[in-house]
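During the second half of the funding period, the structural biology subgroup turned its attention to how the target accommodates small molecules. The most pressing case was zinc ion, which had performed well in the primary screen but for which no bound structure existed. We therefore specified the complex as follows and requested a full 3D prediction, including the ligand pose.
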Amino acid sequence: MKIRSLFILSLFWLCEVTAQTDSSIIAQMYRTALTKGQSYQMLEQLAGGIGGRLSGSPQSYKAVAWGKKVMEKWGFDSVWLQPCMVPHWVRGAKEECSVKYSKGKLFTSEKLRICALGGSMATPKEGITAEIVMVDSVSELAKLGEAKVKGKIVFFSRPMDRAKITTFEAYGGAVDQRYSGPSEAAQYGAVGTIVRSMDIGISDYPHTGTMKYNDSFPKVPCGAISTQAAEDLMKILKTDPHAKLYMKMNCKTLPDTLSYNVVGEIRGSEKPEEIICVGGHLDSWDNGDGAHDDGAGCVHSIEAVRLFKALGIRPKRTIRAVLFMNEENGVRGGNKYAELAKLNNEKHIVAIESDGGGHVPKGFGMSGASEEQMKKFMEFAKLFQPYHVYEFTNHGGGTDIGPLREQGVPQMGFIPDSQRYFDLHHTEIDIMKNVNRRELELGSATIGAMLYLLSEYGL
Ligand SMILES: [Zn+2]
């Protein structure tokens, strides 16, 4: 055999061996996560034990202390807190909402399930009562203008598009009504707004979420009603267009307060200066216990790094788990993380986020990568096939890692199955009981495997 072919053969053999080593390490990661995993137990402590953790709440501080303690317990090389100021909004006593309308000659009243949107102001003590203007979009609202809107409560009624296969797309197509609807309505003199919840189905759980007031217009109270309540209200308005809505909300915005991101890492053995970070957000809405959004992402991240410890693997590059504070109503934690990364001249080769819940893993999406990086990413995909993880796309990221984009860091989003996510997102049923242990553990293993490949080969 010629030397050249011998060389090619040995190179081929080497590649085979590496591929075998990689696949066997990945197999060990899945096995460990599924048989001796800690994801579910950690989530029981965080979501089940501590509960909903809105920024500034007592639970959010408990969550910070918890995150630091567990990462120290798993023996990460270093664990630290990054202080950042966060908004502090409180919901107050339970909201009330009802509609009064005429049924033939009789007046009748029906209760509607509502929750205040995060950041909303309160109604006056006696609540607000006004006629309702139903619109399916901000542009329809603009057409009606002040003549039809002044003194009324605007009801944004457009549902999420059920035909979309990726429910996040359906969410993206409807959420403007929640986020900017209140100020859009206030500019025409509305006294309050309600929005059909961002729920892909019909249920009686109102979904909260953040909104933003435009300082150029008056501030009005705003809430979300359940999709069932929205359906009922639409029918009522057909029979009585002069039906009156009553809403009462008791929320309040307190001064900003100090909180923290929690960061823990294992230093790389060969290229410690190259950082791969993976994170979820530690804060959650207050109505459930934030088990899926985003307790799952937090424990995915911790567990993915812990698997290296459990298997005695020293990563070649530094791997870092980040529990971001305040994703839900400000992204102050994500901004602070990027600011410090820049200040400290850190070199992130990629940032990964898990913020789509704890359902069955399907893959990863990546944005902001070069053609070469994308090619490498697609090469990794093959190693995930035995785990039925097939979705590798050129679109992905996360809200908390978003601010790193300015520094040229490629953004990778972990993709779990999204079909059931918007049944519970931001509701009282986003709770531990609705997390499937096996699905959660598979997610941690999938992220662990991706961390392993990135730490071995870079991007
Ligand atoms: Zn989230």
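Two results from this model are relevant to the next phase. Residues 30-89+255-457 form a domain with the Aminopeptidase fold (CATH 3.40.630.10). The chain has a mean pLDDT of 95.
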